[in-house]
Write a structure and sequence with these properties.
One of its GO terms (biological process) is protein monoubiquitination. There is one protein chain. This protein is an alpha+beta fold and 342 residues long. Helix content is 27%, strand content 23%. It has 9 helices and 17 strands. It has helices spanning 30-35, 40-47, 64-67, 73-86, 148-161, 163-175, 222-235, 245-253, 300-308; strands spanning 2-7, 17-22, 25-27, 59-60, 91-94, 100-106, 112-118, 129-132, 178-180, 190-196, 199-204, 215-219, 287-288, 297-298, 314-316, 319-323, 330-334. The structure holds zinc ion (2 copies). Residues 272, 274-275, 280, 298-299, 302 line the site of one zinc ion. The site of one zinc ion (ZN) has 7 residues, from loops.
């Protein structure tokens, strides 16, 4: 005996309807029978797939008005055929309307990825909309003969083309302290790497040529950043595309990056001297007093508000000139970009 639990969505999952297929006959209430008219052969087919049943156990049967927007039976049989070709083990999620699927893929380095596929009601005549956590656009070729296997194959090819890029970023993430992004996604091309107390380097890794010299920006107090910038400029010719970005940065800047093996992250996440917190919305205290004995970090927004409130401060265009709240030495800050939330 096979059975399927049908979950009418929007009902908080309370009203489950048990549908029993006994000797290939459908046993359920008359309302359900009416709803399933035209879909019975699909329900039977799914219910006979031993072991793979759970995926399709939650069939969307919304209110009857919404049932009218359900695609024709052919859509579902097509979907099942395509999933059988691709392999059910690739399916990590399907919504209750059977329109949105998430398929998993593993690249040759063992990284796990997921592609979200939104099928059109006229699938496969219309191309599905595919999205994934990638640093490049996910462009798919699609014809009326294409299937989910084509999506998956093209996705895998794209993943392989980005393997070197992710290898560069994975090494940075594993061997250094990254201040930003707080939780890097596979789409993030930027890393702000700790060099020392209140000193960091922001690198923007190229997706196509990941081992080339990335765009670099040194952040911190002038007395620390200037010598590093000079090193970067004078040693730039030593950059070796055969080596990783991290190794090249070490060689060119002539430094060792603090790593999780050698340092605690808390020693680099010094809070703002004005609001005493580290993260303000998503900002970190990246304005540093240039006096070498002070070196106090501040959030840009905090320092800007503070200096504007002091009568002795002076503003010229978007820059405010004033005194460090800690050591009274001259300090400047640019007007922070407007936060859309405020
Ligand atoms: Zn602050
Ligand atoms: Zn200061």
């Amino acid at each position: 005996m096979n059975y399927i639990v049908l979950q009418p969505s929007g009902s908080n999952g309370v009203n489950y309807v048990l549908l029993i297929i006994l000797h290939c006959r459908l046993h359920c209430c008359w309302q359900l029978k009416q709803l399933l008219r035209g879909y019975v052969h699909i329900v039977k087919r799914v219910s006979h797939q031993n072991g793979k049943r759970s995926v399709f156990q939650e069939v969307a049967l919304k209110s009857r008005t919404e049932c009218r927007s359900i695609p024709p039976p052919k859509y579902y049989s097509q979907l099942i055929t395509e999933m059988e070709d691709l392999g059910w083990d690739k399916l990590v999620f399907i919504d209750t309307e059977f329109r949105t699927l998430r398929l998993k893929a593993e690249d040759s380095s063992g990284r796990q990825h997921v592609v979200t596929v939104k099928l059109k009601p006229k699938h496969p005549l219309e191309a599905p909309v595919c999205t994934a956590d990638l640093p490049v656009p996910l462009a798919m070729t699609w014809t009326a003969q294409s299937s989910l296997t084509h999506v998956h194959t093209q996705f895998l090819l794209l993943l392989e083309s980005l393997a070197e890029f992710w290898a560069v970023l994975d090494e940075i993430d594993q061997k250094t302290w990254v201040l930003e992004p707080e939780k890097p996604s596979r789409a993030d091309t930027m890393r702000r790497i700790v060099i020392g107390n209140n000193v960091s380097i922001k690198v923007e890794v190229n997706t196509r040529h990941p081992n080339m010299l990335p765009e670099c920006c040194l952040l911190g107090a002038d007395h620390v950043v200037t010598p590093l910038r000079n090193k970067l400029n004078s040693n730039m010719h030593l950059w070796n595309p055969e080596c990783s970005v991290l190794q090249n940065l070490r060689d060119v800047l002539e430094i060792e990056f603090p790593s999780p093996a050698t340092h605690e992250k808390s020693s680099f996440s010094v809070e703002c001297g004005i609001c005493y917190s580290y993260r303000l919305n998503s900002d970190i205290p990246d304005q540093v007093c240039n006096d070498s004995r002070c070196g106090q970090p501040f959030h840009q927004a905090c320092l800007y508000e503070w200096l504007r409130g002091i009568p002795s401060s002076r503003q010229s265009f978007s820059i405010v000139f004033g005194e460090c709240p800690y050591c009274s030495k001259p300090i400047t800050v640019k007007c922070p970009p407007r936060n859309p939330e405020n």
